[in-house]
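Check my protein:
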Amino acid sequence: MSEDKTAEQQPRNELPREVLEAGPSEASEAIETVGTQETRRKVADESPEMPQASVGPSGAEASAAADEMPEPSPTGRQRLMQSLWPPRVSRAQLIVALLLFVLGLGLAIQVRSNSDNSALRGARQEDLVRILDELDDRTQRLEDEKRRLENQRTELETSSDQAEEARKQTVEKERQLGILAGTVAAQGPGITLTISDAKGTIEADMLLDAIQELRAAGAEAIQINDVRVVAGTYLADADGGGVSVDGNKISQPYRFKVIGKPQDLEPALNIPGGVVQTLEKEQATVTVTRAENIVVDALRPAKRPDYARSSSR
């Protein structure tokens, strides 16, 4: 009993027997080891218990918190896309779009019509002067015709013998209509247009353009070879080549005898992009000759209408 009690009362820091029996150096190392162990034991006994790490919120709580968070505001690009798509078209916008389309179409037509006059834009100064002179001549002819008709009306109103004056004017009108209808011969100043087509490239529509240009320049009587040209004349491409006028095939060279003012007729054919230039592009030879007296003697028979009758009031 005495030994056990003595053992229990032995202090905890008493060195073990092995240390006491060891040498000085070994004892020193043992003492340091025991001191370190005792220090660690004291620190562990005196330190408070560490609290457990807090656990984050559960999955449901995190989801609820995420739902309560405000949505981020859209960016500028997103707002632009939302305003453009899907498109919202009002009635006013449709009307404006239609007006813009009509305006663009009109501008396109205007530009195209201006481009059609490219031949005049590229013309020389002397050609433009000649075209202006021709327009002035046409204006003068219309003014002369207006004055002539006004004089006839004045003569009818002021003549003492209105019946005789009316008869004279009727005879003159009949002569003029006979020339236009081709039932009487005519002579006067004018030009001769000769077209030689060695390669056979001239078509009926080209000769028709020449007739129309001459009429616009004031031609009063036209004859192609042996065929009189009247208001109802038609031209067509003949079988086997060549051109037919009113069903009569004519051979080349095509010879136009035209009565009118030579100073108006010749420039009308030689304008840039006109008849002569077009025919020469087809490698045809064109000559225009002025003459003081041109005889147009090819005649058309006068046809009596089957159904039309003059009405008297």
